[in-house]
Amino acid sequence: MDVLYFAWVRERIGLPKERVETGAATVSELVEELSAREERYAAAFADISALRVALDQELSDFDAPLAGVREVAFFPPMTGG
Amino acid sequence: MDVLYFAWVRERIGLPKERVETGAATVSELVEELSAREERYAAAFADISALRVALDQELSDFDAPLAGVREVAFFPPMTGG
Amino acid sequence: MRIAVQEQPFDLGAESDVFAAAATGMGAVVTFTGVVRDVDGGLEAMEIEHYPGMTESAIRKIAEDARDRWSLGDVLVIHRYGRLAPGERIMMVATAAPHRKDAFEAAEFLMDYLKSRAPFWKKEITRAGEGWVAARCEDEDALKRW
Amino acid sequence: MRIAVQEQPFDLGAESDVFAAAATGMGAVVTFTGVVRDVDGGLEAMEIEHYPGMTESAIRKIAEDARDRWSLGDVLVIHRYGRLAPGERIMMVATAAPHRKDAFEAAEFLMDYLKSRAPFWKKEITRAGEGWVAARCEDEDALKRW
């Protein structure tokens, strides 16, 4: 699946988008998997309460299953308007 | 003093403005005096609760004294906006 | 602060642009525009009568009250009188504030007070005849929240 | 209903005019415009990042929710992204409704949801450095009233 990062999550991880092959069943499992990879991921995901997640471009939550999902995006709370 | 009428009060009384010499101490007394004059005044002032009054271009009420007032205006509730 | 009571039409786009451009340092600009509505069909015109002399000072007082209650950079009120056709713009208000909440609340406050406390009266001219628009209880009630 | 997510500036006056002219039969038109504010002095630019693909659909959903909740004739949302200077207009919404209460409430609803539920992120570039604008608790709280 495609994993996208925005705002300071993108800056901390150092890239806007990557292709990830994963067996993670939920968003939380994917976060654990990524955090285990490298320090920059662990730093970005250190405080999950400061993050939001979208699955296939719809706001979701960290308990949500990943089955069938093609695009996951991680970002801080939005500041539009 | 000058007495002004607006909207249907003006139409019912049949004029927009007149000069009135009066000894009325309050707005209510002026209303009584005018109502006693002619039927068209009595008709216009029949239901005081449907009217508003301004003294020298400031919203006021029917108990207000007329001492020193130069301009009295009677009209229905306003419908601006 | 600009208050205009006028018979001629106003240019909503130009007024909005000029107002927003002048509101330096403000983060939020709200405008409200009122338009003559032909609710039941058959409306030929809306005639708006006002009380020259009192109108502008009453509006100015309402606008000053708004500036006292909210943090505002600027306020604009334009209100027309005379004979208007359906679809014509009757009036507009604009507010500029550092934050959106102030700009919105002040604009709603201005509208609520202009409705019931500025000396305008509307008469509807229809094919069937003509009649004065009655003040609505809900417009009077709207003042209670402020 | 028009939703525009764009890098280039928009013309507030022209957009307001076109929107109001198209809203036939509506008695009330409300616009809100957001402007880049230099709160502490020293702001050089505001950089707005967004999530292409999701942004427009998220805004469309918010606008559709507004149409479901209020009696609206039309809705317009324009939101910019990219690098903006202080004083530049970031975004605008417009609502048209038969009555003013619906037009105001729907515009406030749109703003509250755009603030916290549309995928935009703001970064402030100052002489001293740069930093992401943090979401404010009061913006999240503002959603609770709807």
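qc> Chain A has three helices and five strands.
qc> done
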